[in-house]
Design a protein that fits this description.
The chain is mainly α and 234 residues long. It has one domain: Rhomboid-like (Rhomboid-like fold, Up-down Bundle). It contains nine helices and three strands, in the order βαααααααββαα. It has a three-stranded antiparallel beta sheet with strand order 1-2-3. β2 and β3 form a beta hairpin. The protein is globular, with a radius of gyration of 18 Å.
Length: 234
């Protein structure tokens, strides 16, 4: 299912959501101009590597002063990794979802609050992935955790919105309107099933950070219900 538009429209131009999308594209355009070696270095420097974060946290808990060398960079990577992507399909898939659902959430939260929530949910999604893959040395990149959080907020804030959806049916493609609560509920269920399935096979080898999607979505739901950053009422 590919969302194309939603019936709930923003009352003002979504300046922050649009800026985030543009930044993601600009960074990726820079990324594709790099050599394979430079790309690998970029991903290793700014992607979130679970083993490094857990290693720094372990040093901190043990009172080892070496944590000061590892932990700041590992923590910063939880945020920088949100703006890196593994390919055009990865980028475009994420940005379509952000474009369709993000503007209305920015409208409710306001631009600066939306940015703060977006970054928080992105880092939180990465931490959720690390929780289930603490020994992995594979860099985590992508905005999926942050965008999943946006979907989680949307799920509770606009459950009756209608989502125009491109739905492939074998050799045929159809366009249908699906209630947001159903579209996003099915999306979350798929992420959860994939997360458990990948973990059962070999969590460290999964190509998609399903747990980051699950964690981001749950954070979004919690923010919509009980978060300190409350959703504004219309």
């Amino acid at each position: 299912m590919i969302p194309l538009s939603a019936s709930v429209k923003s009352r003002r131009f979504p300046i922050m959501n649009t800026t985030i999308i543009l930044i993601n594209f600009l960074i990726f355009l820079h990324q594709v101009q790099l050599s394979p070696e430079e790309t690998l270095q970029l991903v290793n420097n700014y992607g979130a590597i679970p083993a490094e974060f857990v290693g720094g946290l372990t040093l901190f808990l043990e009172g080892d002063p070496q944590f000061a060398l590892m932990m700041p960079e590992a923590t910063l990577s939880l945020f920088t990794s949100i703006f890196l992507h593994g390919g055009w399909l990865h980028l475009l898939g994420n940005m379509i979802y952000l474009w369709v659902f993000g503007d209305s959430i920015e409208d409710r939260l306001g631009p600066l609050r939306y940015l703060g929530v977006y970054l928080f949910m992105g880092a939180g999604g990465s931490l959720f992935h690390i929780l289930f893959n603490p020994l992995s040395d594979t860099p985590l990149v992508g905005a999926s955790g942050a965008i999943a959080g946006v979907l989680g907020i949307y799920f509770l804030t606009f459950p009756q919105a209608r989502v125009l959806t491109l739905l492939p049916l074998g050799f045929f493609i159809t366009f249908i309107y699906i209630p947001a609560i159903l579209f996003l509920g099915l999306w979350f269920l798929l992420q959860l099933l994939n997360a458990f399935g990948a973990q059962a096979l070999d969590g460290s080898a999964q190509a998609v950070a399903w747990w980051a999607h699950v964690g981001g979505f749950l954070l979004g739901v919690l923010i919509a219900i009980h978060g300190r950053i409350a959703v504004k009422k219309r």
